[in-house]
Amino acid sequence: MKCCLAMICRAAKNTCRGTATRYENPVSSGSALIVVLWVLGLLSMFVVAFAFDMHIEARVTSTWRKKLKAEYLAKAGVELARMALFETTDSEINNVDSANYLAKGSDEQLRYAAVALAHGAGAELSREFGAGTVLVSIQPENARMSINAMIHTADRELTYSCWESIFENAGVPSEQWDTLVDCLLDWVDQNESTHLNGVESQYYESLDPPYKAKNRPLETVDELIMIKGFNELIPDSNRTVFDAVADYLTIYSEDQKVNINAVARDVLMAVLIIDAQMADQIIAERVGTDGREGTEDDKPFKDLNDLLSRIPVLSPAVAERISFGATGRFTIQARGKVGDVERVITCVVKQGNKQISILNWFEGPPEDRPITR
User: Fold this and answer.
1) 55: helix, strand or coil
2) Which residues contact residue 265 at a Cβ distance below 8 angstroms, ignoring those fewer than 6 apart?
3) In angstroms, rounded to a whole number, what is the distance separating the alpha carbons of residues 230 and 222?
4) Which of 61, 152, 165, 334 sees the fewest Cβ atoms within 10 Å?
5) Which long-range contacts (CB under 8 A, 24 or more apart) does 365-372 make?
6) For residue 69, how far is the Cα from the chain centroid?
């Protein structure tokens, strides 16, 4: 580009000198100068456009490299979580005094996370690799309510009582509860007879696109959005009923009870039918003074007696709704970040027989990340 510009400039100068010598006409010399200036202007535009394109390509290449690094950081985070879960099989980790286990390794953060997971709690880990970071969250799946265990096709009233506390805590108006429960039952029962406020395939086939009622148990929590009522907005909000209740639910829990050592605040309120203050007290008691899971001062509840001695206002009847450990299924969320580029992997894994298998896997940018249920 520079060579071409120099050649054109020399040619333009020669033209001006030649024109002036032959004609000695100032008007002609001025015209040649204008031509030269136009050529220089056009070339300048070409140079600026070329530089801009190179700048954009450099930015795209840099973003692509960051994206690739972030993806591998997220995958490394999943492997870090697998290491923590494998550590829970150590024979020393379940001792009342975990000092022997903790003395085995120098990675303090990983060790404390493994202890927390072994005692039914969740854990968080972080690592820095060069210019990037990875943040990992590991949560037992039985920290949420098993959705299929809350649907009793032969007992409408029991189903209603199972969902009542969820709807209330999620802010769903009570006048919608009957319709939601009846439509849910009609979706999973194996007939085309409708409940009083429910709908069957005839309704769904009138939609665009049409589909039939499933007439089988739910396979994902996201399936709720296909059921009449769950895809409707809650009055005076921008959230659907599905958005409001989805975080309470899972299909991966193998236990009808909820793990009190890992359950989140809102779910705990719905399970035990308690207020926010009581839920905060229970969580503060189990996570210790730093307010974080998977750290040195964690104090997970060992059993019902331990729970009632530390939270005496609770009734022994809570034993029907809670458990004190994980059941072998965990949600892993690994967030790899390089600069302003982030990639997230969210997966559900099953631990058993000293092996970890993948039940659900999603990876992508954080804005596309689903709630794994």
Assistant:
1) helix
2) 276, 279, 280, 283
3) 10
4) 61
5) 366/335, 366/342, 369/344, 370/222, 370/346, 371/221, 371/246, 371/247, 372/331, 372/333, 372/346, 372/347, 372/348
6) 19
H or E segment to which residue 351 belongs: strand 341-352
Q: Which residues of 153-179 are buried (b: 16+ CB within 10 A; e: fewer)?
A: eeebeebbebbebbbebbebeeebbbb
Q: In the chain, what are the domain boundaries?
A: 2-62
Please say if the pLDDT value at position 287 is more than 50.
yes
Q: Which comes out higher in pLDDT, residue 363 or 321?
A: 321
How many CB atoms are located within 10 Å of the residue 371 CB? 15
pTM confidence score:
0.79
- Each residue's pLDDT tens digit, 56-81: 777 667 788 889 999 999 999 999 99
Supply the pLDDT for residue 371. Answer: 45
- For 352, phi then psi, to 5°, come to 180, 145
* Mean pLDDT on 26-42: 74
Check residues 150 and 48 and name the one with the higher pLDDT.
150
Q: What number is the average pLDDT over the span 277-298?
A: 90
CB 212 within 8 A of CB 204: yes
Q: Specify whether the backbone of 294 is left (phi greater than 0), alpha (psi in -120 to 50) or beta.
A: left
Alpha helices (runs of H) in the chain, residue ranges in sequence order: 2-23, 26-87, 99-102, 108-118, 156-170, 177-188, 201-204, 241-245, 265-272, 276-287, 304-310
Apex 356 CA angle, 351 and 357, nearest 5: 105
Structure token digits, residue 213? 């009622």
